[in-house]
């Protein structure tokens, strides 16, 4: 009994550790004063000011645009790449998979400076394009890593069966393979989106004049003190994601219960 | 163009990374026959089937379909359909959508699709299963859907890759008979792959026994069982006693230290041969009357018969008999000349 | 039937955006002037410069802090992974998502929030002073940076260990108990050895970002605080010495590949010795 209480207490302490900064952020988004140290009364003014703050809105705009485009492009390239890699064999497959791992295992900062070096070498002007290209580069490997297991789980004769019944390779891909691996594609796309939206290091090195994202804005604000408007924005984004998760979770627990029932049959 | 053959394989060889898995296969498949490719796993039977289906390209040789070379034709343009080993039903479609898949591609009208699917579901005994999801079906039902999905396209040839492998024994026996009946009813060629010799003997019009990428023997089930061409076939099909012997002259063979009359001829004088005697062809008698004499060393009850091992001093003979002799009994054995089967000795590496 | 070609666009992408950049960084690291590609001057000076105690200290502090945070996340995270893995499926899914959710808030902002918690007038100092002790300097030192690392990377340790633990067949533990092992023996003989792949993944997932970070050290260590990541940032963005910066990046990469090789070897060794028992 004592053991059980201790276990509970430990988990609660850990949650406290992880959530303390988030709680502080949310509380201070309602703080009257701009100072981050002291509480001086409840207000909603930062939530109103948020929609007038051009700097923050612009950063938000670029963050979302880049995350959307990077996740869509990397999902398309990555899905096709995964299908191709799945079809490879032997040493070729090994080489491609290892190269694919490079951006995953390399520290962000190394990926960041190497891309920066490339863009300078190509004399590309730093800005939207360089940022987008670098985001796509670090997103594709994660798409591949989430699509590939779905392909491996798939009955490998499925595409053959479709072709056996008269489907051309493209038709078989569209009607049979893609529907089979769609959960992996969605996971990959979501992963790419969140990675892109949260990225700081790679964007920081490959940004250009006038093009910035939320992380970079926060970093540059950190020295002079962060505008509570950012706290308000983050609170909104965080609760939005939380609601999304609850909806998805409700659906997936329903599916889970269905599966359990099937299994019990 | 040869009218009796629907598919001809000419000198087909297949290599993977320099390893030869099929070696010079020649096969002539008659219209409307039930042909079985039989052999242990890794013998090349599935590769042969996949080459006919178009999923693999042969390294050498060609495939003729109704007189036309189809070696280069992709699978979706062949009038051949396949029932895959694990069925490969599309999990995200229901029974109807699975069966209608091929017809939809051919742009058959919706009305015709409906009636055809209904008809084929009746053929495989799955009436009113149209809207069931694949995961809700049992293994046997999935099997039937897979067959229906292939047959609804009215192929000239149906390929079946160990289709009964995942079913339990009882269901498998039922499906064997059902498949054979189905083949007779639709009147098309079935090419069937299995490693189960009993299944092959039950269902086939002809059997192709394969081993190590080479065709060992082609013939009717009766031929293959009674006249195995070599040691591999004799051992793979049914139980057998295989003994070394010497062919003294036509119709005279010596083995186990005795000379026997037989029905084989055409060997060299005193040629070393192998002799096959099926366990059920050894008849038990009293010791004095036996051509061979020995002591029963073990006995196992097999349901219909007993299996006994009889040692004659040098060789352990396997006998199937409904008469039981207890261990230690001295018995004699007789074998009729037509039940002695003499084979050429093949040196196999 | 062959679908290999669908990966060709990505193969091209790999060459342009992964391989060529790394080659360029290597080229920068082993050259001196950046005049024109035709008169490159090869040199190892950039690497020699790193041997200076001033820079070597930076490497030492980075590795030390990364190791410390790896050990701490392991000590804090392993029990959590076990506790959650033992829960019922429905409950453990919720619990494990609760450890992922914090990562959805921008990590710079979460790290920044620690300034509020740790500051002179912060909540923690408030509690300490209520207990009758003077305010402590909790910010802008090794401890603060370490805390930031543990805070940020703890989920990276919990998740891989957890995902290995939930896959362990429960009957293994039961049969060990059936054979007479007590709870502690079940842990040391069954659970721990089987969870090693997860521990290895966790260690690499924490050590790598910890050793290369420059954000946590900047925010919680203050403007003057130097880790190897800060050094790279400084060389590329402020000093403009891309050659030296590239050399440090290469050293960092080698360091990380070595760590991976060592942990991977440890993993296979374990597997081999398990076979003997």
Textual characterization of the structure:
The complex is a heterotrimer of chains A (265), B (349) and C (277). With 265 residues, chain A is an all-alpha fold. Helices cover 81% and strands 0% of the residues of chain A. Chain A has a domain at 55-226: Orthogonal Bundle (MetI-like fold). Chain B folds into two domains: 5-231, Rossmann fold, CATH 3.40.50; 239-344, Nucleic acid-binding proteins (OB fold (Dihydrolipoamide Acetyltransferase, E2P), Beta Barrel), CATH 2.40.50.140. Chain B has helices spanning 45-53, 95-105, 110-123, 139-151, 169-186, 197-203, 221-226, 231-236, and strands at 5-16, 19-30, 34-38, 60-65, 68-69, 80-83, 157-161, 189-194, 206-211, 214-219, 241-249, 252-255, 258-261, 271-277, 283-285, 292-301, 306-311, 316-321, 330-334, 341-344. In chain B, the strands form four sheets. Chain B has a six-stranded mixed sheet with strand order 6-7-8-3-9-10, sandwiched between helices. Chain B has a five-stranded antiparallel sheet with strand order 13-12-11-14-20. A five-stranded antiparallel sheet of chain B has the order 15-19-16-17-18, with no helix packed on it. The mean pLDDT of chain B is 90. By secondary structure, chain C is an all-alpha fold. Classes of the chains: A mainly alpha (265), B alpha+beta (349), C mainly alpha (277). Chains A and C meet through helix 1, helix 3, helix 4, helix 5 and helix 6 of A and helix 1, helix 3, helix 4, helix 5 and helix 7 of C.
């Amino acid at each position: 009994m004592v053991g059980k209480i201790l276990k509970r207490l430990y988990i609660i302490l850990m949650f406290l550790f992880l959530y303390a900064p988030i709680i502080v952020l949310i509380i201070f988004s309602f703080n009257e004063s701009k100072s981050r140290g002291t509480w001086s009364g409840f207000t909603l003014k930062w939530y109103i000011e948020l929609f007038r703050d051009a700097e923050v809105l612009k950063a938000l705009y670029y963050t979302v645009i880049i995350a959307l485009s990077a996740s869509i492009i990397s999902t398309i390239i990555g899905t096709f790449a995964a299908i191709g890699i799945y079809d490879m064999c032997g040493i070729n497959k090994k080489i491609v998979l290892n190269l694919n791992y490079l951006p995953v295992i390399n520290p962000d900062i190394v990926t960041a400076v190497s891309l920066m070096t490339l863009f300078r070498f190509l004399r590309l002007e730093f800005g939207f394009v360089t940022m987008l290209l670098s985001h796509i580069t670090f997103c594709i490997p994660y798409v591949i890593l989430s699509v590939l297991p779905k392909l491996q789980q798939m009955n490998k004769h499925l595409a053959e069966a479709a072709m056996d019944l008269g489907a051309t390779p493209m038709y078989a891909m569209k009607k049979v393979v893609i529907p089979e691996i769609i959960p992996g594609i969605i996971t990959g796309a979501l992963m790419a989106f969140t990675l892109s939206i949260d990225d700081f290091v790679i964007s920081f090195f490959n940004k250009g004049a006038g093009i910035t994202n939320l992380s970079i804005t926060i970093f540059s604000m950190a020295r002079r003190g962060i505008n509570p408007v950012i706290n308000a924005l983050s609170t909104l984004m965080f609760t939005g994601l939380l609601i999304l998760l609850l909806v998805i979770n409700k659906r997936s627990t329903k599916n889970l219960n269905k599966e359990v029932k099937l299994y019990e049959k | 163009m040869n009218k009796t053959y629907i598919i001809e394989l000419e000198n087909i060889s297949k290599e993977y990374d320099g390893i030869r898995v099929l070696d010079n296969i020649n096969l002539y498949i008659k219209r409307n026959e039930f042909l079985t490719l039989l052999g242990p796993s890794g013998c090349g039977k599935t590769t042969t089937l996949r080459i006919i289906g178009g999923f693999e390209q042969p390294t050498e040789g060609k495939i003729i379909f109704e007189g036309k070379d189809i070696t280069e034709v992709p699978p979706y343009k062949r009038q051949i359909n396949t029932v895959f080993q694990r069925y490969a039903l599309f999990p995200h479609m229901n029974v109807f959508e699975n069966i209608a898949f091929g017809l939809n591609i051919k742009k058959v009208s919706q009305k015709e699709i409906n009636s055809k699917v209904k008809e084929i579901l009746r053929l495989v005994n799955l009436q009113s299963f149209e809207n069931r999801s694949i995961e809700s079906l049992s293994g046997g039902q999935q099997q039937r859907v897979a067959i229906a999905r292939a047959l609804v396209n009215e192929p000239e040839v149906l390929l079946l890759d160990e289709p009964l492998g995942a079913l339990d024994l009882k269901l498998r026996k039922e499906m064997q008979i059902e498949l054979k009946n189905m083949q007779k009813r639709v009147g098309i060629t079935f090419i069937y792959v299995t490693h189960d010799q009993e299944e092959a003997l039950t269902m086939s019009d002809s059997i192709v026994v394969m081993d190590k990428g080479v065709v060992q023997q082609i013939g009717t089930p009766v031929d293959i069982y009674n006249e195995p061409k070599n040691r591999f076939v004799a051992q793979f099909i049914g139980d057998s006693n295989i003994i070394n012997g010497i062919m003294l002259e036509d119709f005279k063979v010596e083995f186990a230290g005795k000379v026997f009359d037989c029905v084989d001829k055409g060997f060299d004088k005193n040629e070393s041969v192998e002799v096959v005697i099926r366990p059920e062809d050894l008849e038990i008698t009293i010791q004095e009357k036996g051509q061979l004499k020995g002591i029963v060393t073990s006995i196992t009850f097999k349901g219909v018969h007993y299996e006994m091992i009889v040692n004659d001093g040098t060789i352990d003979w396997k006998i199937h008999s409904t008469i039981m002799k207890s261990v230690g009994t001295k018995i004699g054995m007789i074998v009729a000349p037509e039940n002695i089967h003499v084979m050429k000795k093949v040196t196999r590496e | 039937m062959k679908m290999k070609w669908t990966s060709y666009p990505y193969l091209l992408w790999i060459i342009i955006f992964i391989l060529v950049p790394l080659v360029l960084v290597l080229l920068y690291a082993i050259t001196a002037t950046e005049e024109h590609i035709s008169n490159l001057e090869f040199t190892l000076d950039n690497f020699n410069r790193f041997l200076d105690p001033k820079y070597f200290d930076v490497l030492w502090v980075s590795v030390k802090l990364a190791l410390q945070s790896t050990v701490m996340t392991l000590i804090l995270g392993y029990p959590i992974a076990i506790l959650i893995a033992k829960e019922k499926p429905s409950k453990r899914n919720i619990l494990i998502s609760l450890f992922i959710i914090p990562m959805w808030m921008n990590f710079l902002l979460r790290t920044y929030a620690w300034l509020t918690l740790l500051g002179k007038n912060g909540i923690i100092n408030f509690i300490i002073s209520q207990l009758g002790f003077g305010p402590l300097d909790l910010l802008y030192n090794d401890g603060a940076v370490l805390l930031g690392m543990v805070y940020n990377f703890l989920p990276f340790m919990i998740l891989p260990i957890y995902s290995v633990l939930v896959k362990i067949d429960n009957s293994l533990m039961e049969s060990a108990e059936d054979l007479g092992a007590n709870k502690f023996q079940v842990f040391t003989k069954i659970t721990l050895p089987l969870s090693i792949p997860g521990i290895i993944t966790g260690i690499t997932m924490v050590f790598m970002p910890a050793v290369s970070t420059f954000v946590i050290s900047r925010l919680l260590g203050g403007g003057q605080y130097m880790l190897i990541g800060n050094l790279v940032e400084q060389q590329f963005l402020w000093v403009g010495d891309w050659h030296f910066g590239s050399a440090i990046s290469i050293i960092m990469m080698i360091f990380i590949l070595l760590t991976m090789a060592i942990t991977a070897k440890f993993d296979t060794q374990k597997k081999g010795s398990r076979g003997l028992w």
